[in-house]
Amino acid sequence: MITNTTSGNRGLLQAEPLIFETGHATGTGVDLPEPKNTPTKLNGLTRKAALDLPGLSEPETMRHFVRLSQKNYAIDLGLFPLGSCTMKHNPRLNERAARFEGFADLHPLQPTSTIQGALELMDELAHWLCTLTGMPAVALSPKAGAHGEFAGMLAIKAALEAKGEGHRKRVLVPSSAHGTNPATAAAAGFSVDEIPARDDGRVHLDDVKAKLGPDVAAIMITNPNTCGLFEPEIKNIADAIHAAGAYFYCDGANYNAIVGKVRPGDLGIDAMHINLHKTFSTPHGGGGPGAGPTVLSAALAPFAPVPHIVMRGDKRELREHAEGTQAFGRMCAFHGQMGMFTRALAYMLSHGSDGLRQVAEDAVLNANYLLARLKPHFSAPFGERPCMHEVLLDDESIKPKGVETIDMAKALLDEGYHPFTTYFPLVVHGAMLIEPTETEPKRELDRFADVMIALAERVNAGDVAFFKQAPTLTPMRRLDDTRAARQPKLRWRRGDNTSAKYAAE
């Protein structure tokens, strides 16, 4: 069997070194005439030494980035099992709508008289979000889930100060909540009081009541939580929080599991961000562009950040300033991300209310199918009852045999799958969190389950060396995680030959 080749390529998958290792300072993709020897206006700031930049021709540059793209995993290639991330298919209809000139070519400083269609689309999106969640108001401007959380917590802060209760500074956060929750509360100026997890992975009313006091500002609960479980006492918890004079923030990152089935407003929730890229199928990643609209209850609606869309006669306009309102301010320079709004509304309109309900039903069905197939072969800490949208396993059954969660994840790379989410949620040691979403057909679920079961059987056969060496078929081999953390190499220097070194290892 051929394991190494002279070129470093494997079949049609091209080996690709770093761009600095490929290029050379004398190369260029353009051919410009020598500058004339005339005085410049640089005031003596003329460069005196050659820039150490990679010089490549146009074909070399194009090939470099295309080869890098071939090494990326995407939902267009296969099942993306990351739990808590909801890596679902992005329909091409949405992409086409987002590229219509009237939406794609807008400028944020255009007069509102020229963007009436865009404002109508945003108004329609807001209507859908409010209807689906049972909430009277929504702020569209937050740019991501954590940004939306921040907007919700700032609205809570403003509401408390308006009531003369600015002394309320403590926010209750269960250990099963998303990690952004305590960070957001702290960023908004609150102190965080953790509610420890119980063995069943849920938040209990008694634990909440034990933490209540006159200094409590809010509770932040993720529902369904990061263990893939619905919180059955959520309404009673909301009632207890409100009776204590505090507010209920719900992390909406897992809304895909209940969209069209449950209205968060009916559960007593005061604020919830919605990740459009998770529930309503707009693209992930790259640090943006994103959108995390935040829906607000009647108690918090007056404090929603500007800008607001308002009607002036038969025209829509943007109210840009907080003066004369109770808005706490604004989250960003402009209103939001038009491409994300367009994609999300296209997804909603193409599904309809019944289709969105089926999204949640199919997402939960797919997760429970995987749970049923994998539970006999792995430890499932909450597997005695159905899950919601994601399957939570751990390494309790395989660790005594020498294989840990990280080893299983590395072995999946050789099988052509992106690994599941590892070591999260933190309340479960050695967690393996898998979210198939509603977009995977049964045959794809079976392919993934077959691979996971085959790996479990390999563990039982005692082939520990296989897992400790994995991955062996990827462009780069397994890193020394400890060394990488303690001796990070963040800057390339000529002579490093970094990619060749790791490829050889």
Provide tags for this entry:
505 residues; 12 strands; 3-stranded antiparallel β-sheet; 7-stranded mixed β-sheet; alpha/beta; globular
Structural overview:
The strands form 3 sheets. Strands 1-7-6-5-4-2-3 form a 7-stranded mixed β-sheet, sandwiched between helices. A 3-stranded antiparallel β-sheet has the order 10-12-11. Strand 4 (216-222), helix 9 (234-243) and strand 5 form a beta-alpha-beta unit. The chain has 505 residues and is α/β, with parallel strands linked by helices. The chain is 35% helix and 10% strand. It has 16 helices and 12 strands. The protein has helices at 19-22, 58-70, 92-98, 101-104, 116-133, 145-162, 180-187, 205-211, 234-243, 276-279, 338-374, 405-414, 442-460, 464-469, 481-486, 498-504; strands spanning 137-139, 170-174, 191-195, 216-222, 247-251, 271-273, 294-296, 308-312, 315-319, 391-393, 421-422, 432-434. Helix 3 packs antiparallel against helix 11 (338-374), helix 6 packs across helix 7 (180-187) and helix 11 (338-374) crosses helix 13 (442-460). The model has no long low-confidence stretch (mean pLDDT 91).
